[in-house]
Amino acid sequence: MGREQLVPLWNFFSEWFTHEPRVAAQPYLWHYDGLRDLLLESADIISAKEAERRVLVLENPGLAGRHLVTDTLYAGLQVITPGEVAPAHRHTPVALRFVMEGTGGYTAVEGERTWMEPGDFIVTPSWAWHDHGHEGEGPFIWLDVLDVPTIRFLGANFTERYPQERFPQGPPVDDSLHRYGTNMRPVGYARESLASPVFSYPYSRTREALERLKQHSEWDPYHGLKMEYIDPTTGGPAIPTISTFIQLLPKGFATETYRSTDGGVFAVAEGTGTVTIGTGEAAKQFRFAKRDIFSVPCWAPYSIVADEESVIFSASDRSVQTKLGIWREQR
Ligand code: 1HN
Question: Measured from the CA of 124, which atom of ligand 1 is nearest?
């Protein structure tokens, strides 16, 4: 059989077809405080230009050497210092940013800038030219999440560098937010790509919505008050391959244990508390504080207790799974 490039299925059938998903990722939490010092140290050692992207990658302990935060997502923390530019390039994987700290940083998508503020959620669509810069003071730091594993798995990973440092200036600052992000769209609007034409979801707006809604919301026992970022022109996910969420848990709220086939990466925008991830002996409990990041493996049960009112961003491959009709949850 070996000489004929054949393998008997019965030797590995039960390994592949398990009762429940077998997942390599492990529950893990990165404390921002420890990580921030290393990020700043990296800024002394290598420039943003030299590095192309100066990122410390969040590598899940169950995925050593694979550079991934969950089985299906890449995540890293990126820092730029005043005056630096992360040069323009484009790639088929989609990137999202969740801003951690700093003022005066911007990202430009096809030459359109948006100034980034802590808590902002920013989308860089597939194959869109993008560069980042920093015209303020102090370090500017954000979380990147990309769908690289999915795109590589599909054999469709392409990257191109722009010949200049910056892509030429495009529409005015936040043009797309005003054009598409206020419950209106241009008359005769025809969709050009699968990505949301809005690429900045400012925290000021998100936070105000949560603040209003918490006054009289029915709390989901598993999620508190959880909202999904959408493409306003379709009502679908803001990114075709990554679902993104923001949730508020009031002080003292303890979620019921929940699991779903998407797992994901979670970033704490505000608050402190405890998250428990996994079952039985493999269960791990982590204290979390503002800006900490944790990884929930697919199908791993988790629950969150908020000691203070907490706001948590999360990203997962749920939108891929729902398109394929395979997404499951267990409440
Ligand atoms: C990328 O383009 C960025 O644009 C960040 O900031 C991280 C990781 C892998 C591939 C491309 C960015 C990335 C990346």
Answer: 4
Nearest 5°: phi and psi at 301?
-70, 145
Give me the CATH number covering residue 312. Answer: 2.60.120.10
pLDDT digits (tens, 9 = 90+) for 304-323: 999 999 999 999 999 999 99
Q: What are phi and psi of 106, to 5 degrees?
A: -135, 160
Q: How far is the CA of 95 from the centre of ligand 1 (A)?
A: 7
Please indicate, yes or no, if residue 126 is contained in any of the structural domains.
yes
Distance CA 107, CA 133 (A): 6
Q: Which residues in the chain land under pLDDT 50?
A: none
Distance from C-alpha of 227 to C-alpha of 128, rounded to nearest angstrom: 26
| CA pair distance 11, 5, nearest whole angstrom | 15
How many domains does the structure of the chain reveal?
1
Ligand 1: residue of 52, 129, 146 to mutate (most ligand atoms within 8 A of CB) is 146
- Mean pLDDT computed over every residue of the chain: 97
Whether 15 is covered by a domain: the verdict is: no
Is pTM beyond 0.90? Reply is yes
pLDDT digits (tens, 9 = 90+) for 238-263: 999 999 999 999 999 999 999 999 99
Residue 1 lies in a domain: no
**What domain range includes position 180?**
24-186+194-330
Mutation probe of ligand 1 site: the residue of 144, 148, 265 with most atoms within 8 A of C-beta: 144
